[in-house]
Specification:
The complex is a heterodimer of chains A (142) and B (149). Chain A is an alpha+beta fold. Chain A has one domain: Alpha-Beta Plaits (2-Layer Sandwich). Chain A is 45% helix and 18% strand. In chain A, strands 2-3-1-4 form a four-stranded antiparallel sheet, covered by helices on one side. Chain B is 51% helix and 11% strand. Chain B is α/β, with parallel strands linked by helices and 149 residues long. Chain B has six helices and four strands; from the N terminus they run βαβαααβαβα. Chain B has one domain: Rossmann fold. At the A-B interface, strand 1, strand 4 and helix 4 of A face helix 1, helix 2 and helix 6 of B.
């Protein structure tokens, strides 16, 4: 059996992790579910998990983000409950990206509306002659 | 198409690649294989003395075994990659992602592989995020067109 664990990060104004968990229990699928502070972790057979999470994403396409996770929920080698030290590896990346998720959600909405973002003008680097001029002016003014 | 992502454990990149109909090549799948395989030798990642040997493909024997061990994890991802999305200078280059030399080597190998490559920076505002998502969607759409040809 090809087992897979997926992490569902919820950054939504209308869906809570508990709503998703209830929906998953309703499906009666043979998967292991863990509700966490950031969302949920689902572990089970690849085809079952992918099909389930496909339907979960539809609950809020702009507020639900999914990625694979190497370790299953509650894995004793990595779980903080048994190791009792610091954040588990990968937490800091998740924490950093979680802050950007609202921006990504609004960007996805804009993309679906067909908005084309304006290309930002790149800042030009300071010309060497201009730098020399600034240095000379500063020296003269002293 | 199989898209290599960097940072290799990025939630945003992994999700966007999957959303736009491609397969993300992320480190989590490699770690998963080593965790789920039968008869773990050295938990939690099941990195055995064989792994640094595999890393010799990329780095010399005097290079720290950590680099070679990590390269053994990255090897299947780099060799399978049809295209890549790289975020420049991610702030979270520590922890499992934290080996600066491995990160440099991975970036170098991806660039020298001459596959379609998109380089970006993490967005820090809504406007930046719109450009970030737009560029990724256009890049992935262009790959799809190439695949259909």
């Amino acid at each position: 059996m090809d087992t897979i664990t997926k992490m569902v990060v919820i950054n939504s104004q209308k869906v809570l992790p508990s709503d998703v968990v209830i929906k998953l229990y309703e499906s009666n699928a043979d998967v292991m579910i863990k509700e966490t502070c950031f969302g949920i972790i689902v572990s089970g057979e690849r085809s079952v998990v992918e099909q389930l999470l496909g339907s979960i994403r539809k609950m809020d396409p702009y507020g639900i983000f999914i990625k694979e996770r190497g370790l299953a929920p509650g894995e004793p080698y990595r779980c903080r409950a048994t190791r009792r030290v610091g954040a588990r590896p990968g937490f800091h990346t998740l924490e950093t990206e979680d802050k950007i998720l609202p921006y990504i959600a609004s960007a996805l909405k804009a993309l679906d509306k067909g908005e084309v973002p304006e290309q930002k003008q790149k800042k030009k680097k300071l010309d060497i002659e201009k730098l020399k001029q600034i240095i000379n002016e500063a020296e003269e003014s002293q | 198409m199989k898209i290599f992502i960097y940072p290799t454990n990025s939630l945003i990149l992994s999700d966007l690649v999957e959303r736009f109909g491609h397969e993300p090549l992320a480190i989590m799948s490699e770690i998963g294989k080593r965790v789920r395989s039968q008869g773990l030798d050295s938990p939690p990642l099941n990195i055995t003395p064989e792994e640094p040997k595999l890393g010799l493909k990329y780095a010399a024997v005097e290079v720290p075994s950590g680099v070679r061990g990590r390269m053994a994890l990255f090897d299947p991802l780099i060799s399978k990659a049809d295209a890549a999305i790289i975020v420049r200078d991610p702030v979270t280059s520590f922890g499992c992602m934290g080996c600066a030399r491995t990160n440099e080597l991975v970036n170098f190998l991806i660039r020298s592989k001459k596959i379609p490559l998109l380089e970006l920076e993490y967005p820090s505002s809504e406007e930046d995020a719109k450009e970030f998502v737009f560029k990724i969607s256009e890049f992935l759409k262009s790959l799809k067109k190439e695949e259909e040809k």
